[in-house]
Amino acid sequence: MKKGVHPENYRFVAFKDMSNDDVFITKSTANTKETIEVDGKEYPLVKLEISRTSHPYYTGKSKLVDTAGRIDKFKNKYAKYKK
To answer: Less Cβ crowding at N or C end of the chain, within 10 Å?
Structure first.
């Protein structure tokens, strides 16, 4: 490996999926100001919106999106501008 190419500050970091509160720990260089305690040890915390435990591809479950309701709401909102 080339010297000076890769970062030197790898450390254990906790990643938390905010949609289902799953926490996993891995090495990372991600900067964060928050911390979390896991199994009696404190780790820097990185919050995620989606991870392997909540992504539909990995879980096999898809989330239902209310597209019909959103479209009706949009049409009602802008109906007053219609000529």
So the answer is: C
